[in-house]
């Protein structure tokens, strides 16, 4: 069964915000010349938020929707506690943009997966395998629309979906497609 390892989500907190002032008030290092977003780290749950001048915040590193919501609530509370204007809670809602999951296909294989052979087994136009560039086979599925990164160890990364059910469904589709390859 696939395990969620990262969720990327966003939330708009206000029309615009002075990120430099926020960084000063919250005592956060902010190098605008290097990156336009201020990095706001939440310890529990362990989530990284990027706050931009547009008033948008992007969460990464969460492993559940509850963690995403908790991190955004903490940022919102910190901003309010430090007299920054933010929208009412009912206007602030998070949107999931990408779910990253990992799974292990090695239970079907003895030893390593021959990715060159696997590439020939899968639809050619949907696969990329250039081991000099990247050690995994890239397989793009149309329905559900996800990308698999398959490694010779049997580890597989599933990315590109913003829906949990579709991500789990994609894992099953991949396993079904690989049954004949592994036998």
Helices and strands, with pairings:
Layout: E1 3-12, H1 19-26, E2 38-42, E3 47-51, E4 56-62, H2 65-81, E5 94-104, H3 115-121, E6 127-128, E7 137-141, E8 146-150, E9 155-161, H4 164-182
Antiparallel strand pairs: 1-4, 1-5, 2-3, 3-4, 5-9, 6-7, 7-8, 8-9
Description of the structure:
28% of the residues lie in helices and 31% in strands. The chain is α+β, with helices and mostly antiparallel strands. The protein is elongated and about 65 Å long. The protein folds into two domains: 91 residues, 2-Layer Sandwich (TATA-Binding Protein), CATH 3.30.310.10; 78 residues, TATA-Binding Protein (2-Layer Sandwich), CATH 3.30.310. The chain has a nine-stranded antiparallel beta sheet with strand order 2-3-4-1-5-9-8-7-6. Strand 2 and strand 3 form a beta hairpin. The chain contains four helices and nine strands; from the N terminus they run βαβββαβαββββα. It starts with a strand and ends with a helix. The model has no long low-confidence stretch (mean pLDDT 94).
> Main beta sheet: strand number and arrangement?
9 strands, antiparallel
Q: What structural class is derived from the secondary structure elements?
A: alpha+beta
Output the CATH topology of the largest domain.
Answer: TATA-Binding Protein
Beta percentage is: 25-35%
Task: Tell me roughly what share of residues is in helical segments.
Answer: 25-40%
Distance between the termini: 20 Å
Number of strands: 9
- Physical arrangement of strands within the biggest beta sheet: 2-3-4-1-5-9-8-7-6
When the domains are counted, the total is 2
| CATH architecture identity of the largest domain | 2-Layer Sandwich
């Amino acid at each position: 069964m696939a395990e969620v390892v990262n969720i990327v989500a966003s939330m708009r907190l206000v029309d615009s915000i002075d990120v430099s002032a926020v960084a000063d008030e919250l005592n956060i290092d902010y190098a605008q010349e290097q990156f336009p977003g201020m990095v706001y780290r939440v310890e529990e749950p362990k989530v990284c938020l990027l706050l931009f001048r547009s008033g948008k915040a992007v969460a990464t590193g969460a492993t559940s929707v509850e963690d995403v919501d908790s991190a955004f609530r903490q940022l919102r509370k910190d901003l309010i506690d430090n007299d920054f204007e933010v929208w009412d809670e009912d206007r602030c809602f998070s949107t999931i943009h990408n779910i990253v999951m990992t799974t292990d296909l090695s239970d079907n294989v003895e030893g390593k997966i021959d990715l060159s052979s696997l590439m020939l087994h899968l639809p050619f136009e949907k696969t990329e395998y250039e081991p000099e560039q990247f050690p995994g086979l890239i397989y793009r599925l149309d329905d559900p629309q996800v990308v698999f990164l398959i490694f010779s160890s049997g580890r597989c990364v599933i990315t590109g979906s913003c829906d949990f059910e579709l991500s789990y469904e994609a894992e099953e589709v991949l396993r079904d497609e690989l049954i004949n390859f592994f036998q």
